[in-house]
Every structure is written in structure tokens, then in C-alpha cells.
Amino acid sequence: MATVGGDSLSVSRDLRRQLNQFLQGSITSGNISYETLSNSALYLLRTVPVARHAVLEHYALSFDEAINTHLSFADRNSWSGQDPEAIQQSQLSALQDVTGVLLSFIKSNAEAWAPVVSSWALSLLGLMSSKYAAKRGVQHVTSLNEVLQMWMACPPAKMLMEITTECFAAMVGSAPDICVDALLEASVRYSPHFDWVVAHIGSCFPRTIITRVLNCGLKDYCTGSVDGSDKDASSSRMKVPKMASVVGILGHLAAKHSQDIRKALMALFEASLHSDTQSSRVTTLPFLLQLASMSDLLLNILTPDLVSVLSSSVVNQLHRQFTHWKRSSPSDYNSFLNLVVHLIAKCKVGSCDIINFLLRTALPQEESAGSELPVDEVRDTCIEIMHILLFELQRGVLARKGNAVVVDLPLLSGLAEQSSKLTTLLLQSYGKRVPWLQKLLTYTSLQAGENCSASMLANIVFSANTPQQLGTFYKLRQGSELGIPSVISSTLVHIFNKLTSATTSQPESTANSSNVLRALRNLEKLVNVEKVKIKRKALTCSTILEGLKQRHSVLCDLLLSANEDISMCALRLMTLVGFPDDLSISLLTRLCSVIAIIFFTSLHKNTEQKDDASKADRMTQLCMSCIEQLSRYPFTKSLFIHYLLEGAVQKENCHLFGGRWQPATSNSPHGNGVDTVSLLEENRQQSLSIALPRFHSSVYHGGIIRQIPKTQLPVKPLQKSQVVRNCLIFTETLWLCCRENRQRCRQDLSGQVNSDTGHEPMETDQVNRHMTTISESSARTLGCVIVDILTLDTLYNDVHWQDPDFRKVTTERDTLVWKRLEDLPVVWNVIQEFSSSCVFVYYLSPVLRSLMAVIMNHLEVSRDTRMRNCPKQFEGAIKLVHCLTKGSMIPPPLSNVAELFPFVSPYEGYLLLLTLWRYIKENPPTEFEKEQSSRTCDTSHMFVVHSILHANINHMGHLCPRFFNM
């Protein structure tokens, strides 16, 4: 007993001694060392629990000194003659001891120690954060991450954070509200310097902290909302800091734990739908919206999920929950609606879904069977919200005009990013939805600028299927041009960029083809409307027309589309728009080439498509219209003449005009494609040709190695009516290129030939009466092109006529010209049609000379009784004389010799042609019309004609007045 009493006495003495040391050290400084005082405080903390508040207060001062030492460590001037490292090491040693003791207490008895220690640690952290916020090493730190890293690099602060985290870990399962409330209170008191503590603790316990913070905030919000009239002013003032603290904590955690915040927010909302308490059902949604109004980050997190769950049934349930509140507190309910409108205007994420929800709820278009529809009160509320929202957006957009301060409208910015989706929604809507969406699109275009506005207008052009849908283009254009005058120019850029990408990325895609065709048809409708306005003088000029005139390069590419409808629509649009004066030479060349290709393609389609020939006729007429417009450029006249004539004699097209293709190679008589003529015979014929310099290549002829003619696919001959029609269209098109006077009445080609009855078209003279003079440059080009087509070389292409006997030298060449012209009758038609121009006949003189030479060679040796018994030569002679007469190369009465051909013999016909030849030789052709028309023939030129008349006076007497001056 004595021993036990002695031990008790010893413990009592030690306790009294440690207590005296602690009291003496706490009251006076300098008599007791720092280590002794720290040991006494630690001893009292272990043995005397009631002294914990005094001990913790002492250690609060110790932590304060240690933090101050650490932050001042870099400032060497403040440590005059002292060793800061030794002092800091002594302080940290004592703080580590107390930290270990507190952690052991928390682990052994968390229920008793954790609330006290956590409250002390949080208060101390908040106090230190605020106290040293102006410290030189702290005040320049800007971001929260930098602040957190700076404080966690401070050992005393890190110890306090470790203690706090351990307390939260111990209480989070049993009493989470206590720790969260302490955290919120400290956050309210020491914000914003305390934010780094909240961020660190929240990152350690994200789900718990987020859920408990929201519950605490909702509880506080409900307390402030219910019986608000009985609350004093101090409690109402505390509501805002508490909400701000909740927003700040969630804002810190949103960077890494946005999904947890999203789940917690939606869980809170869904719980309110099934809550038993009236206050929770009524205040949860306003609480969430209040949080969103205080943080754009929370607004972006909450909006998408909240809008997705707001179905008709959920909205009706909310209406039932809010009915009593709406009746009892109409002012609060109106404030709630204004808050909703304010938040909608602030929403950038999910903006299009919000608008779609409002439209779907206010004006449901499709009523699916079995689905619940919004009640009338809900619809009226959404309509009211929509009207208020449009008014606010209009005021915000108009405030931008003439104001240096730009009004931020996040909703319109979000809608601008989803302009295509919003445009599609507009085109699919009807009724009251349409004006709402038109206003939204107009405000969005004015807010986002020219690029967005042009993109929306281009989407309408590509998506509109009805005139009503295309009418939205004009409404949106009218509103956009108030703030963006050049929006149409940018719209055309967007449209043709999309056309180019659609045709180059996947030209064979059905979807791309339908989109391109739809856009072209809508552009055509817009052009027609613009032309009507100009005609009515409602417009002086059209931006659309002028812009399309600069886009012929893209339209030219579309002309060659594999889709026939696209090609025809592009051609029709090009015809409607017309062509500007400043087209480049390269583009003109490409346009002429492409239109010539389409012209012949339309003739092919007309012969192939029996059921839909009218479509091919329209394509032909459009080609002719384009050719007529482009022919006002002198450069294009020559191009079209080349392309049309060369295309008409090509293998693929010559059968359209009654021609036939003859390959250049000769067929083997044995049918096996191998030439069996001996080399000896070949070299003998080679030696009889015109003498050439004897090079090694000309001394010996090696023959042709395995010459095999290409097999030809059989071409079905066309009906005579089709051939005649095609020739008339071709000739008419050439006249469009060559005519001098542009004010010429065009004939209706559809009435010239009746394919069903087979009636012949108008005579050539009748056609010519409707035509004007061919221009000299076109006549020159036309004559030269025909000469190049019919003659294989230019050796004897001189326009002057040699001695008649010289035709024996050019027999082979003249025969090839005759055969070529016989295979291509359309060229004969062209020669006859345009021979009224002396310039054309002048440059065509080599061909006419070859034709006369062939006819004369045949008639000279023919033994038939009548010239008409040689039908080819007879018809050729009449055509030839007719052309020479129209071109004024033969004056009257010599020009009337064609009337004698039906009555003369072949040899007499030869003599008549020989007379003509000699006259032309003596009077060479000239391209000057006055000189050509002033020529006459004397008696010497008529001697042969008179002799033949006298010799055949019995059946030519009635023709004497045509050759004698009676």
C-alpha cells in the first residue's frame, strides 16, 4: 500500500510540475525553453483530457510560429544573426510529436476526439490561410493549384491537413453532416483563402463531400425558404454566403469530379420527385437552379441531364407539386420563372436541346399513341417562357449595335455552334413554331456574325424541299441583312464550297447527288424570284444574280455530272443567270468545250429516249441559249465553231446527222487483216511517185507490219426525220455562233419537223429569210475549219483556181475530199447554209475546187445519155453552182447554168463546169463583198452556154430568156 501510495504521489508531483511549467511557459516567455514547454503540453494532452482546449490553443500558436518561420525562410534579412534552419527543425520536431499523438487519439477514440480536433484544425487552417495571404511568397500565386501546392509544401500546414483528413475519414461514415457543416462554416468565414483546403479534402472524399455539401445546402435553403417572414435578418444574410460556399466547393471539385457532381445533382432532383415532404418537393428544383445561376460550370453540368429527364410526365408532376406554391406565393413563382429565363439565356451547353424541349412542351407537333401530353397550364407556362426569352434575346442583340460593350448571350453562342441542327428543326416545324425559330435564327446570326448567318442560309438552300420551307430563306435573310449587309455574298461562298466538296468527295453517292440537285433547284427558284423583282423594279440590282455570275467555274464542273438532272439544272441556272463581261479566257474555253459536249449528248438522248424526248429537247434548247449568250464574246465564236464542227464529224456523233465513219486503215481482201501485196510491187509504186531526196528511209519501202483494222460496233441508222431534225438544230446552233446581228428571231425547233408524220422542214431559202448576216470573222473561221476537216493536207489549199488541167495532179486529193464530204452530209448542209457569205466561200474555195474537179472528171468520161443519170454528180453539180452563185463567185447569167443540167449530156455538163472554172480562174475569189458583187461576165464566157442552148433548142428553148437579153 505504501508503494502504491508512493507511485500515486509521484504521478501527482509530475502532473503538478508539468502543469506549472506549461502555465509558466504560456504566461511568461524566456524562462522555459521551447522544447520543455512543448513536452509539458504534450504530457498534459495525454494525461489530462480536460486540458485539451488549452493545449490545442498552445499548439495553434506553435503551428502559427512554424508556418511563419517557413514562409519567412527565404527572407534572409529578417534573420539577423540567427540560424533559421535550426529554429525550424526544433519547431517541426515538436509539431510532429503532437501530430502523432492526435492521430493516435483519433484512431483509438474517433467519436470523442475527431469532432474536436477537426474543428480546431479547420479553424486553424482557415486562420493561417487568411493571415498569411498577404505574405510575399503567397500573394503572387494566382491559380488554386499553385496555392494548394504552395501550402502542401509547407510542413506545418501539411501536418494540419493530415490531421483534418484523418478526422474526416473517421467521421465520414458515422457523422458526415458534422464534418461537412464544419467545412462549410470555415469556408464561409475564411473564403477565398480557405479554398485550397476545401479542394484538397473534397478530392480525398469526392462522393461524400459532394453529396453532403448538396444536402447541407438544400437544408439551409429550405430553412430560409419556409416561413421566411419569421426569420430574422441575420439568418437571411447567412443564406447567401452558405450558398456561395456550396458553389465554391463544387466548383473546385468540378475539374476532376464532374461526373460525380452530375450524378449527385440528378439524384437530388429525382429524390425530390418522390419525396414525402412538401418543402423538399417544392424547393429542390429552385435550389438547383439557384446553384446553377451562381456558377456557369454547375450550369453546364446540370443542364444536359436535367433537360433529358424533363419528359411530359415529369413536367406534369412538377406542375402538380408547384401548384400550391404558385397560388400561395405568386411573386416568388414569377421570380422563379425569371430565373429560368435567365438561366436559359446563359446556357451554352445543350442550348439546342433546351429550345427543342420548350418547343416540344409548348407546341407538341406529333402526338404519339399512349404518350402523356403536357397539360394546358404547362404549355401556357412554356409559351410564356418562350416569349420572355425571345424578348430578352432581342434586347441583348439590339444592345450590341452602337455599343462598345458587347453583351454576352451564351445561348445564342451555343445555338450558333449547332446552327445546322437548328435549321433542320426550323424546316421540319409548322404553325407557331416557325416564327419563334425564325427569330431565334435571326438573333443567332446577328450574335455570331456573318459566317454563321451565311452557313444557316446555305443549309436552308440545301435542305428546303417545299416553297414554304424555302420561304424561310427570305425571312432569315431579311433579318440578317439588318446587321450584316454582305450576308448573301458569304452565303453563296458557303453554298458553292459545299457543292464543290459534295461533287469531289463522293460524286457517285446518292445522298450527295440529291443534296446537290436540291440546292441547284432552290438556287434556280431564288434567281427566278430575283428576276421578277427586278422586272417589277422592286430591285435595282440583285446580289444573288451578281454572285452567281462569278460562280460559273463550279457550275461548269456540275455540267459534266453523271446525274443527268444535275447537269440539266446547272445548265438551266447558268442560262438564267447569264454571263458577266469579265470572264477569263481559260473559263470561257472550258465553258465552250463543256457546252458543246452537252449539246451532242442531248442529241444522243433525244434519239435514245423515245418516251422522254421532251427532256432532251429542253436540254438542247438550253445549250443553244447558252451558246447564244456566250457568242457575244468574239473569242467564243471561233471556239464554238471549232468544237461544233469537229464534234459533228467525230465517230461518236456523225451518225446523228446521217454520216458514216470510215476508218483510215485499209482492209485486207482476205479478211484476216494482213496485207498480202508483195514488197516488190510496193517498191515499184514507190518509184513512180514524185521524186524525193533519196534518204535511206525513202529508197526502200519496208511494207506494213501486221495491219489489222479496228472492229467497229454496228450503229443503228436513224430515221430520216431524226436526221433532218438534228441537221437543222446543228445548223441553227452554228448560226447562233456566227450571226452578226443579235436581234434575230429564233425559230421554234419543235415545230420544224414532225417525227410522227414525217413532214419535211422548211426549205433552206425560207430559213435564210429569218437569219441575218454572218460576221466576217466567223465566216473566215467556219471556212478554214471545214477545209481542215475535209482535206488531209494543206499542200493544195490555195484559194486561187489553177488551170483546169491541173486537176489531174490533185486527183487523189480531190477524190478523198469528195468521199469525205459524201460520208458527212451535214458538212454539205453547212456549206449550203453559209455560202451567202463571200468571205466563207473565199476560204472554202479549195474544197469547192476539189468538188468541181471530181464532178468534171466523172462527167468527162461518162457515156450516159443524160447528166441526170449520174445522180451523185448531178446533185453535187447543182449544189456546187448554187453555193458559188450565193457567194457571188459566178455572176448572172452564168450563174443560171444549173437550170441546164437536167437537159444536157454528161459531156455537155462537163463543158458547162469547165466554163465556170475558167471564169473563176480569170476572176479569182476575193473576200471583199463589194468587189465580188460588182463582177460581170462578157460574151466570151457565155460562148459555150449559148452553143449548148442552140444544140438543144428543142427542149431548152424555154430557158433562153435566162441566158439571152431578150
What structural category do the secondary elements indicate? mainly alpha
Total strands: 0
* Binned strand content: under 5%
Radius of gyration, in angstroms, nearest whole number: 51 Å
Distance between the termini: 182 Å
Low-confidence stretches: 1-6, 226-240, 664-675, 742-771
- Summed over residues and divided by their number, the pLDDT gives a mean of 80
Q: What's the helical proportion of residues?
A: 55-70%
How would you describe the shape? elongated
Largest β-sheet summary = none
Q: DSSP helix count?
A: 44
Q: Care to describe what's here?
A:
It is a single chain. This protein has 966 residues and is mainly alpha-helical. Helices cover 69% and strands 0% of the residues. The protein has 44 helices and no strands. Helix 8 (176-190) crosses helix 11. The chain is elongated. The protein starts with a helix and ends in a 10-residue tail after the last helix. Residues 1-6, 226-240, 664-675 and 742-771 have low confidence and may be disordered.
Q: What topology emerges from the helices and strands here?
A:
Blueprint (H helix, E strand, L loop, with lengths): L1 H26 L6 H14 L4 H20 L12 H25 L1 H22 L12 H9 L2 H17 L4 H15 L4 H10 L1 H20 L7 H41 L4 H17 L1 H14 L2 H17 L1 H17 L4 H12 L13 H23 L11 H8 L1 H9 L5 H16 L1 H14 L3 H14 L6 H19 L4 H26 L7 H7 L2 H8 L4 H14 L7 H24 L4 H18 L3 H15 L30 H9 L8 H4 L20 H19 L25 H6 L6 H15 L20 H13 L1 H10 L3 H6 L1 H17 L9 H16 L19 H17 L6 H5 L5 H13 L1 H4 L10
